[in-house]
Amino acid sequence: MKKIYLLSFVFFVSITSNLFARSEQIELNLLEGNKIKLWINIYKTEKTPAPTIILLHGCGGINSDHHVWAKSINSWGYNTVILDSFTGIVNEDVCRKPRSYQPGLRAIQTYSLANWIEKQEWSEKKISTIGFSHGGWSIINIATKEIRSLFPNNKIVSAVAFYPWCDNYMVGTHKRDIDLQIHIGDLDDWTPAELCETTAEKWNLKDNFYIYKGAYHSFDRLNVNHTYLQYLIKSDSNARELSMKRTKEFFEKTLK
């Protein structure tokens, strides 16, 4: 009986260790000599070096769905690094006060992380990013020429935003400088699709802007259907599958 229990325990540890990456804290060099210590989770490909995808969580921090995404991206042949922007840094509820932690700051952190990734032995130098909700809003900032120009030697070549807040004042005053793809549900009542339609038009996204009919905020998540801060959070398996397919194709195109 003890032997069976031990084997079961070893099997459990083996499975869970494959589901989640090792977490470590690193120090990033920001602008003007400023530094910050942030936590990351690294999923390395079996064959390295390889291109890397940086994943940015939403206003609630990292959840299990981000790890599921990381594993999927990993299976496509890319290293995946989940950047934890909040742990040890944020004291406020960013979901209730989304501007309490500016997406422009998260964009700067992401470029700083890209510089760190470039120096790792498992990195092939080319880097893309993907972000969800508040992280998607940060992706919009990452795509701008104005923020990108602060890191002239950066290796970020593309970005994917899922249901971002499309800040069209910023979009109207900033230029897009990298390939950008946006995914959003037409019934999203937290980050309205109409705003992103304007963004897509102003930034000439053409074939890289996707609206999913009947889909709500967080449509890509697994098995969720509830209201949070009056907004509906609901899974949509069809939208999830199609958006992941399009994201994979986008990475294949931009990270050649």
The tally of strands reads 10
**Helix fraction by DSSP (H/I, runs of at least 4):** 25-40%
Number of self-contained structural domains: 1
Order of helices and strands: HEEEHEHEHHEHEHEEEH
Total helices: the number is: 8
Which class of secondary structure composition applies to the elements? alpha/beta
Named at the architecture level, the CATH assignment is 3-Layer(aba) Sandwich
The portion of residues forming beta strands comes to 25-35%
Low-confidence stretches: 1-18
On the 0-100 scale, what is the average pLDDT? 91
Determine the CATH superfamily: Alpha/Beta hydrolase fold, catalytic domain
Structural overview:
By secondary structure, this protein is α/β, with parallel strands linked by helices. It has a single domain, classed as Alpha/Beta hydrolase fold, catalytic domain (Rossmann fold). Helices cover 36% and strands 26% of the residues. The protein has helices at 2-19, 64-75, 103-118, 134-142, 145-148, 168-173, 193-202, 237-254, and strands spanning 22-29, 35-43, 50-56, 79-84, 123-132, 156-162, 179-185, 209-212, 225-228, 231-234. The protein has an eight-stranded mixed sheet, sandwiched between helices. The longest helix is centred in the N-terminal third of the chain and has 18 residues, at 2-19. 39% of the residues are buried. The model is unreliable at 1-18 (pLDDT under 50).
